[in-house]
Amino acid sequence: MHEINLKAPAKINIALDITGLYDDGYHQVEMIMQTVSLYDKVIIRQQESGIQLAASAEELPTDQGNIAYRAAEMILNEADLNVGVDIYIEKKIPIAAGLAGGSTDAAAVLKGINSLYNLKFDFTRLSLIAAKLGSDVPFCLNGGTAYAYERGDKLKQLPDIRKTHFLIVTPPVPVSTAEVYQKYDFLKPDINVPVNKLLTIIQGQQQIKWNEGWANVLEGVTTHFLDDILEIKGIMMEMGVVFTMMSGSGPTVFGIVKDSKQAEHIVENWPRKGDFITNVSGLKAGVC
User: Fold this and answer.
1) What is the pLDDT of residues 34-47, one digit of tens each?
2) pLDDT of residue 287
3) Does the pTM exceed 0.85?
4) Domain assignment of residue 180, given as a range
5) Which residues form the GHMP kinase N-terminal domain (predicted)?
6) Distance between CA 89 and CA 61 in Å, rounded?
């Protein structure tokens, strides 16, 4: 095998809270994350030496500034292999949008090189490498539904939630995660995020009632400087969406819809021009 093709799914946060601050400036978080059926395509080919990376999105760096490139460096160094890879990323997930687009590409590169060169690294070993790359990368290795805590890199796999249809809308404005967390420290929004209640419901494999106050503590921070989020949420509710929330640090907003037919109707009749909009469903763990 000289080439491998992988699908790298996006993730959303169906709850996000900040519970503290570490001495090094990183935030202590509690999150429930979910992979969804919006994918980048990652193609990895063997080559004799070096790392080459290209992408369909011109704004993506093709060197160490790309987390997928660093993932390739790390796993090849870990394996002590004197070989190389040629990586191509076909971007479908919006960039800098709170959907873990970079992290999921990095996870795909780790899994792909592990398979392509028959390294036989187990999940634990891959997770240790992933954690060095970024807090979302370990989750993206397996996906599904998971509880993330501490720096966001400690994970507890949860039962897959019941089939849920999501509407995803991303305004054409990239958002810096680091800047949002800095603004959080300044604004300190007082929001109750019942992560443990939602965790208990999912662990008990109960039906999630989306009107019970699930929240993202960063939503009020990003909406402080970006009006698009509240406008998108308002349009969603007017069009019959059951529940809306910003994902991650934004600016993506997701909505819960009754079925794919309703989602398709909203996509076809979405009034804002320039937004990325699609309908997706939740994925089970290990499914890409």
Assistant:
1) 999 999 999 999 99
2) 73
3) yes
4) 165-281
5) 66-144
6) 11
Residue 63: in which H helix or E strand, if any? none
Judge whether 11 counts as a catalytic residue: yes
Give the per-residue pLDDT at 284: 94
Q: Which of 157, 178, 196 is the last residue of a domain?
A: 157
Q: How far apart are CA 33 and CA 38, in angstroms?
A: 15
Concatenated DSSP letters of 153-186? TEEEE-PPPPP-EEEEEE-S----HHHHHHHHHH
99 known member of a binding site: yes
Q: Which residues of the chain register pLDDT less than 70?
A: 1, 288
The answer to whether residues 38 and 173 belong to one domain is no
Is 256 annotated for ligand binding?
Answer: no
Q: Taking the alpha carbons of 173, 178, 182, 184 in that order, is the dihedral positive or negative? A: positive
Find the length of the chain. 288
Q: Indicate if 128 and 177 belong to the same structural domain.
A: no
Cα Rg, the chain, nearest whole Å: 19
Contact yes or no for 54/42 (Cβ under 8 A):
no
Q: Which residue's entry shows tokens 């592990």?
A: 114
Reading the block at residue 173, the tokens are 């404005």
Q: 200 labelled as ligand-binding?
A: no
State residue 153's pLDDT score.
Answer: 84
174 is in an annotated binding site: no
Q: Does the annotation place 220 within a ligand binding site? A: no
Farthest CA pair distance, the chain: 57
